[in-house]
Design a protein that fits this description.
The chain is α+β, with helices and mostly antiparallel strands and about 280 residues long. It is built from 5 helices and 20 strands. Strand 17 and strand 18 form a beta hairpin.
Length: about 280
C-alpha cells in the first residue's frame, strides 16, 4: 500500500469533489489515504493525518500556495508531492484538477519522475545569539518592512564576508524554484531549477549600484539591521513568519534535503514558463 497524504485549501469549491475522487481510486490504485485534520471532515473513508512522518507520497489540492504549505508540512522529508491545481496559475503544480485521476493512475504505475528542488533552511537568532525560530522554505525567505513608509538598512554577509549594505524596502533570498515568485516581481533573474543557487534580490533598493546577486548553494547568508524603533517582518514562502528587530540575525542557507515535485512525461520547465507566465516574448502567428 502507498500511504498517501492529502492537504487541501478549503477556499476552492471543487475540493470536496477532488477528495471523493481520491477516495474512489484508493482501493484500485493501492492508496491508504490520510487527510490533514483541517479537511478530514469534508469526506468519509480517509484516516486523519496525525503526522507526515509515515507518508510515502503527498497530494496537494489547491494552488501553488497549497503545494508550498505541503512542502513545509513535510519538514525536509523527501516525499514526492503531486500538486493538483484548482486555481488559476499553478506554476509549481503537477497537473490540473481535470487531469488528477489520470495523474494518480500514472503515479501508481510509476510513470513519473520526482524532480528534486533545492530548499532553504532559515532561522532567526535573538540578540544573545540564541535561536528563537526555524523554518524550511521551498520558494523564499523575505525580510521586509511593515507599515512604515521609509527604507530600511540591511547588512548582508555570505560565509562571514560582507556582501553589501542595502537601503531598500527589504530583501528576498530565494531558491531557483522561488526565482519565478516574489524575486521575479522585484526584478530578480529567472534561474532554471537544476542550477542550484541562492538568489539575493533587493526590494526597491534606494541606489543604482545594487543589483540582484546569484550565489552558490554553499553560501550561508546572515542579515542584520540597524537598531530602530520599528520591527521588520520575516516571511517564509509568503505564508508564515515572525517579527525581526534590530540586533537580531537572520541566517539562511541551503537545506539538507530537497523537495520532490512529481512531473509527468510531456511537461518541461520551459513549456510551463511559456504557458503559465507568458515567457518568450511575442507568440508566433
Amino acid at each position: 500500500m502507498i500511504r498517501l497524504g492529502v492537504v487541501g485549501h478549503r477556499g476552492y469549491e471543487r475540493l470536496p469533489d477532488m477528495l471523493r475522487v481520491v477516495l474512489r481510486l484508493a482501493p484500485e490504485l493501492g492508496f491508504d489515504v490520510y487527510c490533514e485534520p483541517d479537511i478530514h471532515d469534508l469526506v468519509s473513508g480517509a484516516s486523519k493525518m496525525a503526522s507526515p512522518e509515515h507518508l510515502d507520497a503527498l497530494v496537494t489540492l489547491g494552488g501553488d500556495g497549497t503545494l508550498l504549505r505541503g512542502a513545509r508540512l513535510l519538514a525536509g522529508r523527501e516525499v514526492p508531492i503531486i500538486g493538483v491545481n484548482l486555481g488559476r496559475l499553478g506554476f509549481l503544480t503537477s497537473c490540473g484538477g481535470d487531469e488528477m485521476e489520470e495523474a494518480l493512475r500514472r503515479f501508481a504505475r510509476g510513470e513519473y519522475r520526482a524532480e528534486a528542488r533545492m530548499a532553504l533552511a532559515a532561522r532567526a537568532l535573538d540578540r544573545t545569539g540564541a535561536e528563537r525560530r526555524r523554518w524550511h522554505a521551498l520558494n523564499d525567505v523575505v525580510l521586509h518592512k511593515g507599515g512604515f513608509a521609509r527604507v530600511v538598512r540591511l547588512a548582508v554577509e555570505s560565509n562571514g564576508e560582507a556582501v553589501a549594505a542595502y537601503a531598500a524596502d527589504g530583501i528576498v533570498m530565494c531558491t531557483p524554484t522561488g526565482s519565478t515568485a516574489y524575486s521575479l516581481s522585484a526584478g530578480g533573474p529567472i534561474v532554471e531549477p537544476t542550477v542550484e543557487s541562492i538568489i539575493l534580490t533587493p526590494i526597491s533598493p534606494h541606489t543604482l549600484a545594487i543589483r540582484p546577486l546569484v550565489l552558490p548553494p554553499t553560501a550561508t547568508l546572515s542579515v542584520t539591521t540597524e537598531v530602530g524603533p520599528e520591527e521588520l517582518l520575516v516571511t517564509i514562502d509568503g505564508q508564515v513568519g515572525t517579527t525581526f528587530a534590530g540586533g537580531e540575525v537572520l541566517e539562511v542557507k541551503r537545506a539538507g534535503r530537497s523537495v520532490l515535485i512529481v512531473r509527468f512525461p510531456g511537461t518541461t520547465y520551459f513549456s510551463r514558463l511559456r504557458h503559465k507566465l507568458g515567457w518568450g516574448g511575442v507568440p508566433q502567428a
